[in-house]
Design brief:
Blueprint: H1 2-28, H2 46-52, H3 58-69, E1 82-84, E2 95-96, H4 102-114, H5 118-131, H6 139-156, H7 159-172, E3 182-187, E4 219-226, H8 232-240, H9 248-257, E5 271-273, E6 276-278, E7 286-288, H10 289-301, H11 307-320, E8 324-328, E9 333-338, H12 343-352, H13 356-367, E10 384-386, E11 389-393, H14 394-404
Antiparallel strand pairs: 1-2, 1-11, 3-4, 4-5, 5-6, 7-8, 8-9, 10-11
Helix pairs in contact: 2-13, 3-14, 4-5, 4-6, 4-14, 6-7, 6-8, 8-9, 10-12, 11-13, 12-13, 12-14
Length: 405
Amino acid sequence: MKKNIKLIVIIASLALLLGGGYLLYQKFYGGASNLSVIEFPDVSFDYPSLASDQGIVSDYLWMRTKQLMTGKDGDTLMIPSSYTIAGRLSYQEAQSSGEYDLSDQGLLLMMYVINGDRLNAMRLKDEVLSYYDFELESNEDLSSWIDSYLYYTASFGSSADLTRISELCSILFDEEGNMRTEQLSVAVYDQGGFFSTDDIGDGSLSTLEQGTNRELTEFTSVEGIVIESVDLRLIRNLETNGFLPQGSFDRNLELVTGAKVSDSLPLYAYAYVDGIYIYSHDVAAAVDVCSSVATMRHLSEVGALPEDSVNWLRNQVINAGAVYSEYYYAQGTTDGEEALDIYPDIMHIGLNTDDMDLYRSAAVMEGIRVATYSNSPALSMIFRQEDGRFVFYADENLDVCLAVT
């Protein structure tokens, strides 16, 4: 009889423990795994193989990026925006930028999630949430972080993470799902205008024909929405999971697709201000190509990138062999510095549109700058050469990692 009583007590205790454990699980973890998010394109063997032909190898690039760039500034778990390796002269010591862009932390978090590294993902997430004042972050950076945070929560998150995502959404969007406006600086034309309502490409370029002397460029401050900051994949995921109201995605998609310059020039405006698109950014009478390509990437992530935009990119990368930072209306050509920042975007566009030629061409442009010196601490990473020093940027290396993983 006593044995039966003991057995009943033990069973009851176990039931209470299991029940309590289940309640705790529901409180802190329950529901997060029920999030529905857009799946990433399948990076089949063919794409990493194309990148590998250019010296870009996922495992090596990811390993070196972590080794070189994380944990360099004290005990922080975050990644600095850039890292300069030691130069040949004794006084040219290795140096971290000491700056931590929120969007870079988002890329790092996404890599941890994709690689199933729950511990490092959780540690990074906690540090970011305690480090930043999200009210002060740009729309672009905040969008990037929420996007990664959402994928983290779908894989590893808790109900507390769901609450935090909702709080961040209330910063970035209004109650109708429209993105908040922010202060922007744009180049002005000689006569003081900073935008044009001309239908670009119909032959009536008028004010857009003016060239710009960069040294004499004047800027004005406006309040609006940067088109490339409208992360359509994020907005669709947020609406699907109830963080934004129904119709948010359709309205934002209309905003972005309406930013297309013209049928003959399938690039995208820089910003939307008071019901008008501003086509120019840093250079008057020119389209910001980097901003346009970032917008194209967002469109490609939701299957909404027009074919003529893809063809424009293909012509630039495959036929011309490079992409430059501005498209000048009057000349009808791109010019300025080579737009190194956008090759990772183009790799992702190639993935999203299943365009192996476009992906390969962008990988070739990245592969030119892969470190190959066997004794380099940055072996297999992608560098920039600035003032005779080799600099490695977190966003470029992490975004390429994502494109080959």
